[in-house]
Amino acid sequence: MKSYTHKYTPEYPISVRPMGEIAGFPVRPGSFEMNGATALPVGVNFTIHTHDGTSAELLLFHKGEDEPYAVLPFPEEYKIGDVYSMVVFGLDIEKFEYAYRIDGPYQPEKGLLFDKNKILLDPYARAVTGQGVWGCPSENHYHARVVKDVFDWGEMRQSDREMSDLIIYELHVRGFTKHESSGVEHKGTFAGLREKIPYLKQLGINAVELMPIFEFDETMSVREVDGKRLLDYWGYNTVSFFAPNSSYASTTEYNREGTELKELIRDLHNNGIEVILDVVFNHTAEGNEQGPSFSFKGFDNKVYYMLTPDGNYYNFSGCGNTLNCNHPIVRQMILECLRYWTISYRVDGFRFDLASILGRREDGSPMNNPPLLELLANDPVLSNVKLIAEAWDAGGMYQVGSFPASCRWAEWNGRYRDSIRGFLKGDCWECETAAWSICGSGDLYGGFYQEHNGRYAGYNSCINFLTCHDGFTLYDLYAYNEKHNEGNGWGNTDGSNDNRSWNCGAEGETDDQAVLDLRFRMIRNACAVLMCSRGTPMFLAGDEFGNTQYGNNNAYCQDNEISWLDWSLLEKNRDLFEFFCFMTHYRQEHTVISRKLPDAVCGMMAMHTHETDADKETVLNNDRAFGVCFAGYDRKKGGDDIVYVALNTYWEDVTITLPKIGSNRGFWYLSVNTAGDGRGRYFYRKEEEVRINHEFVMRPRSVAVFTGRTL
């Protein structure tokens, strides 16, 4: 590098003037704490780090070209510790892409994979090139672009809604609107989802959980099965943790990547809907020993991944490699990533895929107090952000009810899913566990709120769900006894075999009206129980109008009519949609379902269970019917809030008695009867409610919800 003298001009403030020249570009040491590439008034600051690498080069490319037009080696004097940082003056961010090359030892048996010829993507890249057109693989190496954030959030406040007040709606950005029947202009994109906001408001949900929207390569495992092109559709193969998936944008956003996503988030917030991102910090798209090396492997393979003593990859993710989450460098990256999405995108929460991996040591063994989980739980920027764990992994760890730092973290309650699925289809031995689940899984999460470091556990820790992207849709849960994943090309060996499903008398599609009637009653049962359970409810997009995946319970590769929502079913099953709408609004109206309120004036217990006889409060393991009562004083309403939900999973009528409201100082009104009244009515608004005496006959396989009112 030759010395470079530059006379001070207003273009280069004296505090950031050039100090040398490399490859014809004026340069100076950069800001070492500013990871990634950051646009400055005078140029761009580039900062990277590598522990075992011996040298680094910055590569500059013209748009779409595979060969760099400039190579800028980082001088040793531009290195502090393991960090290289350089300001390159005069760069126009709209006219170049960038990448790196790192030199160092190549010793695979020691986990060192350095290759001075390998072009590497910046781990902190805010935008990735070559991925902008869905399904079209990039012919170039992964390059990054510098993003200039000029989005104005105005005075938008961060949501202060409690976790237990959420109704979460899980969706896939592309699949939500890609089908021709969606009726939106920008199908399969952030903009298309934005067009559906009025629908989401009508449905009554107040949080969307977006399946992975970080940059991923859907073509990584492209193949053809039965004439269909199969892709990595779900997106659980992260290429870059800081970059939004550019193929989800309806327009090209050169150097403004993320704008369409920010517009979506802003409008969702303006309509009272929070945004939770499904994040994948358990593995990356680089795979195992046979996988590509395009970023993390080339910067510091033994830092970023869990390696066996002989340099191979531990595979607790089931996807080839496992991110070394509790290494200090990786912890820092994950924290910076979540802070970035919270600050720059105003995201309200994160759901962590296979989160138990986040609690493993570098050798894969479980930790009692994982530093990463504590770091995220106590970070000041993330203090109001929801943290949700999928509390298991592919290596056998199952931590539902015991996930570390649970007083800050919520969990997908897998036991709720299993016990309620089983009981609703008639597994009477699930009765006691189902009762615990409806009551908020107090045996797992401590029941009522427990304060810890200013945070509350209990019901805020419990995410109740019966369906999610992984498994049957709610319609398929009652249309198939067995999975039908033949179209995935693995001989129907993939996907879970433990579905606790029931086809109601016919496997798959049928014209038998009795079977169809039973299926939709079972769906209403599931919806009613989910919305009347303590804890945070979550359901899968399309469940509200009977969407089907034709028995495929692992549609990760199906970018077609199997996974795309068929919106024509919304009109066909309009009564089901209206039922879901009623139940979401009913839950929001009756806060006693989601939380413990002050003691009811009428004297009823805050929460109690019953056999068919309300005088018997012990639910037995082999009961086929039981009820749960919630009662409390709602200060906002200025009166008692009382709800009673009763379940009959028997194939015959069951007569139940309702609990007394105080000293007979009130009455019960029927709000929901999933068996219907014979005229297609399944729910009753307040002005339509039917007053019920002490007894009620529940039809076979039905759920009823009663609202209590005092005199």
TrEMBL record:
<dbReference type="GO" id="GO:0005975">
    <property type="term" value="P:carbohydrate metabolic process"/>
</dbReference>
<comment type="similarity">
    <text>Belongs to the glycosyl hydrolase 13 family.</text>
</comment>
<dbReference type="InterPro" id="IPR006047">
    <property type="entry name" value="GH13_cat_dom"/>
</dbReference>
<dbReference type="Pfam" id="PF02922">
    <property type="entry name" value="CBM_48"/>
</dbReference>
<dbReference type="InterPro" id="IPR004193">
    <property type="entry name" value="Glyco_hydro_13_N"/>
</dbReference>
<feature type="domain" description="Glycosyl hydrolase family 13 catalytic">
    <location>
        <begin position="170"/>
        <end position="578"/>
    </location>
</feature>
<dbReference type="InterPro" id="IPR013783">
    <property type="entry name" value="Ig-like_fold"/>
</dbReference>
<dbReference type="InterPro" id="IPR014756">
    <property type="entry name" value="Ig_E-set"/>
</dbReference>
<protein>
    <submittedName>
        <fullName>Glycogen debranching enzyme GlgX</fullName>
    </submittedName>
</protein>
<dbReference type="Pfam" id="PF00128">
    <property type="entry name" value="Alpha-amylase"/>
</dbReference>
<dbReference type="InterPro" id="IPR017853">
    <property type="entry name" value="GH"/>
</dbReference>
<dbReference type="GO" id="GO:0004553">
    <property type="term" value="F:hydrolase activity, hydrolyzing O-glycosyl compounds"/>
</dbReference>
<dbReference type="InterPro" id="IPR013780">
    <property type="entry name" value="Glyco_hydro_b"/>
</dbReference>
